[in-house]
């Protein structure tokens, strides 16, 4: 039967030891680039052990996971990437990005690093990319992590929202998306009491290229229905959801949990869409607890 950690039950998880959270000091970090599919993909590798690849959402970069790498690297090789057109990654003008290309790029980075199999996770837009990777190369997965994401296709309203984001980026530049997105990435309490979090995420949004913003928005607006894919997932799966997420609210994580056999759902209170950054300590404990259970 699928297992679920409710908001109330999650408080038990918070009692895990500091050692589990990886507070003993960070592992050395490798910062590099992979030339794949005509693009130059920036990656960061930290730690040793079973591999964990984390894929960011729109329009962010691998630095979304900057608060998670130290903790996870105590027991795992943690790989984060910047999708083409985002962060430090670049792409040719003729192929700024698509769902298929993003998936191939991520697999190409694994090839570059000689990683045959990994726990592969995606946040928001990273989720549809993970589903695409699973449809094309399920043998590369030792597990799956789905973070504040969705398997459903975009509704008409959502399609037009992403089209508007793309048009705004073209007209006013990537920096114009900061205010549009931060109100959903972080809770109001965090934006008020921890403005440094908003500043950090805002800086990442500004790093995206216009072409990347447009390509990513198109991917979100036109993503396929991945609900049928859920029942084909046979690897251990962790679903992480912020209780205050207004982009893809908990109901969508509940649906994924119900359709992925044996999956684990953790709902974290006080967190919006950028869950891995806003509530990093809780996310790290949840990930480490789950990862230790699938070894």
Automatic annotation (TrEMBL):
SUPFAM superfamilies: alpha/beta-Hydrolases. InterPro entries: AB_hydrolase, AB_hydrolase_1, AB_hydrolase_fold. This is AB hydrolase-1 domain-containing protein. The keyword Repeat does not apply. Pfam families: Abhydrolase_1. Residues 1-21 form the signal peptide. Keywords: Signal. Gene3D superfamilies: alpha/beta hydrolase (3.40.50.1820). Residues 50-279 form the AB hydrolase-1 domain. It comes from the Bacteria.
